[in-house]
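# step 3/5: fold
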Amino acid sequence: MLQHRFIESAKKRPDKMAIIDRTTGRDVTYGRALLASLILARRFQKLERGRIGIMLPTSSGGALAIVGALMGGITPVMINYSTGAAKNCQYAQQQCDFKVIITARPLLERVGCDELPDMVFLEDIMDELSNFEKAIAFVKSKLTPTLLTQLCGKKDLDSEAVILFTSGSEKDPKAVQLTHKNILSNIDSFSEMMDLYNMDNLLAVLPYFHVFGLTINLWTPLCLGMTSITYANPLEFKTIVKIIKEDEPQMLVGTPLFLEGYVKQSEPGDFASIQLTASGADKCSERLRVLYREKHNLEILEGYGTTETSPVISVNPRDANKPGSIGVPIPGVEVK
């Protein structure tokens, strides 16, 4: 189970940084992340039982809300706030049969979304916590991994882990249910193929409401015990280049649009820490490959996937990159 993998990471290295949040400045160790997710799990169980909406940016708060939902046995329904946030909230509620949406006031202000009746603000939850709630979570966090996993969330790998929505460019967005097995197998296969087990950290700027961001920027580092360096707006190219230079992530994953914005705002040497650059969600141009090659001596590894496949279907291996192709199927995947 995804939350159980997270528990294993947190218990193994509680003092390691889980999230460096460059939007809010709230950095969280694995030990603190475990504590916070246990607190949120208990709170969310009082709000919903089956599913709960989450509309939060790529941040420590967004990550912990998703983990907290699964720790409480609740399925997070990820809501796209990039355009038409209010409409997307109501559509998700109708399609997925839930009421409560966890969000944050700064996000609503940023995207121009009015407050809706069933919204619950993450900052209010954290401000209202009692010492009793904190004490219960603290005691639970000290349990052995085996016992803690028995208490936290669902146990069936085929159970629902998340609901995401397709882009809906031609018709109404489609709700896609992914299981724990779907996402975990994708993480394990992608990590094996790309040799991620020796990676210490990555830059996480992709939104969690897309499967690319959810699997690669959230669950992969949490399951592998890596540090996520998060920033909420992937379009602030200059700021993100500054973050790369200062925080030195080893892995950079993005869409061609984002990757082009970063390389154009960068100077030689800014990406010295990057060991792996991967592109997905759209075709990577030869021009973009040349920019990374000439400015930073980096080869972009292109992959392909869909929401329904959690997402990675194929990718170019690090030691056998073929520019212009989408690579080969990851282990365990057959393509006809």
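# step 4/5: annotate
The first strand starts at residue 17 and ends at 21.
# step 5/5: archive (pending)
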